[in-house]
Amino acid sequence: MTEQRSVAIWRDGRAVTVPAGEPVVTAADQGLVRGDGAFESVAVVDGATPHLAAHLARLARSAELLEIPSPGDDAWRALVDAVVSGWPAATEGVLRLLLTRGPGDGAPPTALALLAPVPAETLRQRADGVSVVSLCLGVPADFRARAPWLLGGAKTLSYAVNMAAYRHAARAGADDVVLTSLEGRLLEGPTSTVVWAAGGSLHTPPLETGILAGTTVARLFERAEAAGWPTARTAGTVDDLHAADAVWLLSGVRGAVRVHTVDGVRRGDTGLTSRIRELLDG
Ligand code: PLP
Asked: What is residue 3's predicted lDDT score, i.e. its pLDDT?
């Protein structure tokens, strides 16, 4: 059985649909050679991308930080339309928008869209929750704010460290990771934002740490505030996760996934997960 996928690439000013499995970049593409590019992962639900605008805004910001000329929102929307049209509404999808510096020598950047079904493991984690281990990223919490060359806040294609963190977690018997700073301050997951409920508020780490500005946490916090649930950017530690009423990992495709174990210690969610999901999906 061939994997269900849909691919489109920006060529000569238009979105061109490419048969899945056919090559779309050359060996010299700097995204391939150096991970020099940016990306977004966007949820496709009922054949639609309700949160695309927030992802396009962040992609534009990443492109600016990387100094890669993006083809612009209209081009991205044309690429999205090309891959989403004909996609079965019943299949929840993960849409990847990829922008690389291209092959160089004056050639334009590479811009493409790739749509695939949400992995079964993501669906399982949504239902069952996850265990996480805390792993140190090795930089002080305030360092990336002073070090623009580290591209804090950009969603770059250089995710080899993030993927290695997952493999490390798997060897430790955990599903996911919470990255911490050198001083032990909470940062983020390798592909998610950390949120915890404590003292009647929702908390997430401050952006000054160089973490990615999550589109999902932004939507959750806006709606929580509107519903009278206070939110805060809080410089927490792993101890705060142990003490919290509930902890979640958030991202566009997974939504809110309950964390049931932190560094081998079980914890509850005091029934708050359904409330969080109502806010996110409402
Ligand atoms: N932090 C990192 C490092 C990520 O890769 C992601 C998601 O891809 C997030 C946070 C969550 O961002 P969003 O909610 O926009 O998907």
From this structure: 66
* pTM summary value: 0.96
Q: Is the CB of 180 under 6 A from ligand 1?
A: no
Q: Which of 62, 132, 163, 191 to mutate to test the pocket of ligand 1 (most atoms within 8 A of CB)?
A: 191
Percent pLDDT > 70 in the chain is 99
**What angle, 0 to 180 degrees and rounded to 10, lies between the N-to-C axes of helices 215-226 and 52-66?**
130
Q: In angstroms, how far is CA 35 from the centroid of its own chain?
A: 17
The rounded Cα 228 to chain-centroid distance in angstroms is 27
CA of 55, closest atom in ligand 1: 15
CA distance 190 to 205: 14
How far does residue 73's CA lie from ligand 1's centre (Å)? 20
Query: 279 phi and psi, to 5 degrees?
Result: -65, -45
Ligand 1: residue whose CA is nearest its atom 10? 192
**Buried (b) or exposed (e) across 121-132, using 16+ Cβ within 10 A?**
ebeebbeebbbb
CB-based contacts of 2: which residues, under 8 Å, 6+ apart?
Answer: 20, 21
Q: Are the C-beta atoms of residues 137 and 36 closer than 8 Å to each other?
A: no
Per-residue pLDDT of 139-157, as tens digits, reads 999 999 899 999 999 999 9
